[in-house]
Please model this.
Amino acid sequence: MRDQKISVFDIYEYLPHTNCKNCGENNCMAFAEKLLQGKKTIGGCSAIREDIYEKNRQEIQSLIDPNRE
Ligand code: SF4
Model:
């Protein structure tokens, strides 16, 4: 269990960093902010649904919802 407050940078670190805008945001950092605020879900990022990002996806999921690891 994590007892420290997570920041947008913690989430951003695991995003693809392509800034492709497929999530509807202008860049990955903006998407990370929406995730942190609970206004988007990780599935909103099309790139991170790819197999090569599975571990990253799990890391982000555990950051934003540690009770559902
Ligand atoms: S869809 Fe994913 S990779 Fe593309 S800008 Fe949004 S967060 Fe970044």
User: Anything to note?
Assistant: Residues 9 and 32 are 8 Å apart (CA to CA). Residues 8-68 form a domain with the 3-methyladenine DNA Glycosylase II; Chain A, domain 3 fold (CATH 1.10.15.40). Residues 15-16, 18-23, 25, 27-28, 31, 45-48 surround iron/sulfur cluster (CB under 6 Å). The chain has one domain: 8-68.
